[in-house]
Amino acid sequence: MFDPLVGTEGVGWICILGAAPFAVCGFWTYHGMTAEQTLWAWFKSQVLTPRRLVFRSDSLYYQALQPAIEQGKKPPRKKKKRKAKEPAGEKAPAPKPEKEDAYH
């Protein structure tokens, strides 16, 4: 086809350049998928099943607690009184300097 126009050597280079992208696909991976798997995933997502995706959360925890929520809230917990603990180390506070300068 191209032989009369560019010669045998030119036809050879055209074949090499035409086959190069397919040869590179053998070494190319994307997220662990080969080129064929990547192209098939793209084709399925863009051509076969194009649709608007809508997120709807299903909270199993909320559904399980729905009867308790409808009955009302739990009574508040009673707070325990704790004794004040003395700080570790010195029992008396450190003395303050008599005169404060601009650096303190």
Count the E strands: 2
- Proportion in β-strands: under 5%
Helix content: 40-55%
Shape: elongated
List the helices and strands and how they pair.
Layout: H1 3-25, E1 29-30, E2 33-34, H2 35-48, H3 60-71
Antiparallel strand pairs: 1-2
Structural features, described:
- Helix content is 47%, strand content 4%.
- The chain is mainly alpha-helical and 104 residues long.
- Strands 1-2 form a two-stranded antiparallel ribbon.
- The longest helix has 23 residues, at 3-25.
- The termini are far apart.
- The model has no long low-confidence stretch (mean pLDDT 80).
Question: What is shown here, in short?
Answer:
With 104 residues, this protein is mainly alpha-helical. Helices cover 47% and strands 4% of the residues. The longest helix is centred in the N-terminal third of the chain and has 23 residues, at 3-25.
